[in-house]
Design goal:
Elements (H helix, E strand, L loop, with lengths): L3 E6 L2 E6 L3 E2 L3 E3 L2 E8 L1 E6 L2 E5 L3 E5 L3 E8 L6 E8 L1 H10 L15 E3 L2 H8 L2 H4 L7 H18 L4 H4 L10 H8 L6 H7 L4 H12 L3 H18 L5 H4 L8 H12 L7
Antiparallel strand pairs: 1-2, 2-10, 3-9, 4-9, 5-8, 5-10, 6-7, 6-9, 8-11
Helix pairs in contact: 7-8, 9-11
Length: 267
């Protein structure tokens, strides 16, 4: 059975699964606050990986790539609820509360929180909407989002440097970024935005940096890594093809034979 995601009101999403489920690569365009009700989420991103355990609250920053695997609890159910904190809501909140950041500040601390009384109670207050025993009006939905912002700032005032940083992603080192993120199977548009470029600027800078197109470079980079895993680490393609951004095994085998002129079994 596939994982089910359901939008309860505008920006509240409830995810449920009854067996291990591998999620697709995701480009996170907006901050979101999430709560692991049951089971675990294993999240993989450019800087490493993390396990979101039951009863953990997580603030996920915008403009990044994430891949997840969802594991049900021993009782056989996976449940995760998230609420989006998007730019319009955060800008309005900053305006009304006279919050202005005079300088950019990178927050290095982990963005995972133990479920304190206030944040736990907040997510429990969403239960009636998830269970469909209560329906949220647009006004009430807005209030719940604002409440989430209040509670985050109460838990750590320095989170204002995360929530109210409205600057556009600046142009970053393309070579370093692509070598860290090539395994994510997302669009060129997502890669362009994450590196602080328009699509045309991204393609132009990519050609200067790698002397090829993004599509060809990504394919070759993933296949070179596949060859290394097969020859040096003795891994089977079925165990890693998804990790390298291939959509299915037959596509991987075809691309591998096309590039190297041999099949994986001939190595």
């Amino acid at each position: 059975m596939e994982a089910k995601s359901e939008i309860i009101f505008d920006k509240l999403v409830y995810s449920c699964a009854f067996e291990k489920y591998r999620g697709h690569e995701e480009f996170i365009p907006e901050h979101f606050l999430g709560f692991q009700l049951s089971g675990e989420t294993h999240a993989f991103y450019a800087d490493g990986n993390v396990v979101i355990k039951e009863n953990t609250i997580v603030l996920v920053k915008k403009n990044q790539l994430i891949r997840t695997i969802k594991y049900p609890s021993k009782s056989g159910k996976y449940q995760f609820v998230s609420i989006t904190l998007d730019n319009p809501v955060l800008r309005q909140y900053a305006f009304e509360n006279k919050i202005a950041l005079r300088k950019h500040r990178e927050i290095k601390q982990k963005l995972f929180f133990e479920a304190d009384d206030f944040l736990s109670a907040y997510f429990l207050s969403l239960s009636p909407y998830i269970n469909k025993t209560k329906e949220a009006t647009p006004k009430l939905a807005e209030l719940k989002i604002r409440e989430a912002i209040e509670l985050l700032l109460q838990s750590d005032p320095d989170l204002k440097y995360v929530l109210f940083d409205f600057s556009e992603p600046y142009k970053i080192d393309l070579k370093e970024f692509m070598n860290q993120n090539y395994m994510f199977n997302v669009s060129v548009e997502a890669f362009a935005k994450l590196t602080g470029r328009s699509i045309s600027s991204f393609k132009r800078d990519f050609a200067k940096t790698f002397n090829t197109t993004p599509k060809k470079w990504l394919r070759d980079k993933r296949l070179d890594e596949a060859m290394y895993r097969i020859k040096q680490k003795k891994e089977k393609p079925a165990d890693f093809y998804l990790d390298l951004g291939f959509e299915n095994l037959s596509h991987f085998y075809y691309a591998f034979k096309q590039k190297f002129g041999i099949t994986t079994s001939e190595i």
